[in-house]
Amino acid sequence: MGGDFGPEVAIPGLALSLDRHPELRFQLFGIEDACRPVLDKYPKLKDASVFHHCEVAVRMDDKPSKALRRGRWRSSMWRSIDAVKNGDADVCVSAGNTGALMAMARFCLRTMANIERPAIAAIWPTVRGESIVLDVGATVGADTQQLIDFSMMGAAMARALFEIEKPTVGLLNIGVEEIKGQEEVKEAGRILKMSSLPGMNYFGFVEGDDLGRGTVDVVVTEGFSGNIALKAAEGTARQIGEYLRAAMTRTWLARLGYILAKSAFDRLREKMDPGKVNGGVFLGLNGVIIKSHGGTDADGFAAAVDVAHDMARNDLMSKIENDLKIYHARVSDTEMQAQEQQG
Amino acid sequence: MGGDFGPEVAIPGLALSLDRHPELRFQLFGIEDACRPVLDKYPKLKDASVFHHCEVAVRMDDKPSKALRRGRWRSSMWRSIDAVKNGDADVCVSAGNTGALMAMARFCLRTMANIERPAIAAIWPTVRGESIVLDVGATVGADTQQLIDFSMMGAAMARALFEIEKPTVGLLNIGVEEIKGQEEVKEAGRILKMSSLPGMNYFGFVEGDDLGRGTVDVVVTEGFSGNIALKAAEGTARQIGEYLRAAMTRTWLARLGYILAKSAFDRLREKMDPGKVNGGVFLGLNGVIIKSHGGTDADGFAAAVDVAHDMARNDLMSKIENDLKIYHARVSDTEMQAQEQQG
What is the per-residue pLDDT across A261-278, written as a single tens digit (0 to 9) for each? Predict the structure, then answer.
């Protein structure tokens, strides 16, 4: 029901993803009157789905607290998250209100053992392909341990999504001052280097321009600067798109050039379009939730469903659990050694 | 002497700016052997300049502490800052090592009365023109008072640079959570709203994508997120430039289109080029220092000198001093009223 266009975009998006991955099966939650007419147009999708009517749909402008009051137990958003909790679904995908989705997901699924705070991971288009960037706005600030948790969760997601064995992980920092960056970032870097975890290759610090360059597979930062970086990059892409449009219509020669190069421009627009690499992933909860961009089209929603498929197929949850176990075993080993040395 | 190309770029840049502003006069500090041959090629610039030979030039990779040890009193960087302190120059422009320049500027000029920390203000290209964004990396973190100081300094700079009477000021924040953003940001917003200063129009919170949109004339944030936003945007512009180049050479039709639309592309590249809106401005010190991009060309260096010219011509320093005076008078009025009410 979520996003700017509701089932009109979500259902065609599901159909697209089903074409690519015929093994997918869907539990759909929504208001019947709004969904049925659209669903009826996609018989293959209908056969692969179970539809559950819900009385309430969370609105895009509902505050999280209000969404929880109105929509707990009975809204389509709650029930789709609950399906993950019950084991009826492997992943939940929603284009709905991000704040409400995060609040409900935290309330319903709770954070994983040993994880204090969830994070939202974005899939970032780079010159070299794609990277994962987290946290892009689940919470403001992060202490050393939370940055380490984000690193492990992001690395596990990179293994599931990009199917690489040992993704590179960088901590986002600034390079202007001699004594660089936040204390927590420096301390997290020190610990990640020392603990040399098997599921990642800790790279060191990266800067804002390394995001688009694709210097590392996973970029870790706290939610305030992560959200600002994401939106600054999106804004810049949109801004250059506007410059480009203006430049290509100014003279008739430019217009002719544009017509000749049209397919090249279409490819470019696709690469610049944030909808194409859709899907913020909520990590650190007892279940995986994918947030699709609210303003996306069917292609974009399908991309989010594709991400969900990868996360389930490659069992993201056990990858994260496994990494956490190894890390905490190493930490307690180190602590025991330290105690023995003191004794 | 600074930047990737030293006097080879700085001197032609000065000549360009002098052509545009014949009233400019220069005090040049550098190593004679490196500068003289270039300067000799620009007789008009030579006539408008006094050259001072210095024994030492700070290197681009010198750590600030090392630059201070090696270069205090005698390096070209130190002496150009000192010229501002002595009143021999109105503004100092350097393409040198940012960390060293900030360290020397703080040491030599000291922060203004009532200002605890300097900030670096960037001139940000937007869809609507240009905005000022600060702090983009002078220091990590900022408390409420420092964010208010940055707002006043940024507004004064906008008045000097854009020649508008009451620039709009926004505080950078994130919009995902119900309880948004950092405590300091919220508190600074409350105070700016209440104190309704004559030199600015406080707009409220803005998000990362408002930067490129040009929603406000001045965007205020602490140095960590500001630096990351700046570099993320620069990285995205570079990334899209690479996509564009690749798209325009893939097929012969695209290549032909590119040739026809070449002048449009050149305009676009100019708008995307960070060098064209060159000049980070150090604010909050007893003197104005302009940092030009190290990798810039003569055009970019000239743009930084143009900014310096605007700052001096419109007397940025007294604008800031004046605003600080008004603000502190209002704050103490409010405090007195509060005491009277209590008494």
Answer: 777 777 777 776 655 667
Instruction: Give the predicted TM-score (pTM) of the model.
Output: 0.90
* One-character DSSP codes across B102-125: HHHHHHHH-BPTT----EEEEEEE
Report the residue of B228, B242, B255, B269 to disrupt the A interface, i.e. the one with the largest count of A CBs within 10 Å. B228
Question: Mutual orientation of helices B316-342 and B183-195 as an angle, nearest 10°?
Answer: 90
Residue A205 sits in a domain whose CATH number is 3.40.718.10
**Residue after which a domain boundary falls, among A53, A76, A109:** A109
The residue assigned the tokens 């798209």 is: B247
Distance of CA B135 to the CA centre of its chain: 9
Does residue B271 sit at the A interface (CB-CB below 8 Å)? yes
CA distances from A95 to A7, A279, A291, B159 (A): 10, 9, 6, 42
Query: CB contact, 8 Å: A107 with chain B?
Result: no
Residue B25 CB burial class (10 angstroms; 0-12, 13-18, ≥19): exposed
The answer to whether residues A10 and A97 belong to one domain is yes
Domain extent at residue A234 = 126-285+315-343
Query: Within 10 Å of residue B53's Cβ, how many Cβ atoms?
Result: 14
Residues A139 and A88 in one domain: no
The C-alpha angle A212, B124, B151, rounded to 5 degrees, equals 120
* pLDDT one-digit tens code per residue, A202-261: 999 999 999 999 999 999 999 999 999 999 998 888 888 888 888 878 788 888 888 887
Q: What's the domain count of chain B?
A: 2
Nearest CA in chain B to A250: B264
Boundary of a domain, candidates B90, B109, B128: B109
Residue B54 · residue B48 · CB < 8 Å: no
Instruction: Clarify whether residues A280 and A191 are in a common domain.
Output: yes
* B296 within a domain of the structure (yes/no): no
ipTM above 0.90, yes or no: no
